[in-house]
Amino acid sequence: MKQYLEVGKLNNTHGVKGELKLQLWCDGIDYLKQFKTLYLDDKGEKPLELLSVRPQKDLAIVKFKDVDTIEKAQEIKGKVLYGNRDDAVIDDGANYIADLIGCYVVDIDTDEEYGQVKDVLNYGSCDIYDIESWGKHSLIPAIKDVVKEINTEFKVIKIKRIKGLFDED
Fold first, then answer.
1. Could you give the angle at the alpha carbon of 72 between the alpha carbons of 67 and 74, nearest 5°?
2. Which of 6, 32, 72, 125 is the most buried (most CB within 10 A)?
3. Are 99 and 93 in contact (CB under 8 A)?
4. What is the mean pLDDT of the chain?
């Protein structure tokens, strides 16, 4: 499992005192507020001490220690920020998308393998797992009627096949 996960992208500066606009790739501002440190790399070698986070429309305005001018903010503008998974808490039963990608999807009743999760999409009502098998993609809604068990440690998602889930149904 990846230790450092993407939380968003610094897409612009905000004002002249070093604040930046962060496009959120995580669950939201409350999740982001759990962090005291974010990183400019996925190995945790380039830390930034987070001083403040506040919402602005669908973005977050962030302020880091030692980034106190627009010039310093411009140096990191465009960078992706990472958070250490140990620094945040997620709800029971929730999973990080990075942990779902690569999981094998199998039938809970027959153990038939349907493919591997290549991406997790969301168009509003629920997450959708993009499953690939032999170059063919299927989209599976991540709803409780379909997804019965997720074990990211063993990289397995067990589903209950319902009518219409795959093209051949």
1. 125
2. 32
3. no
4. 93
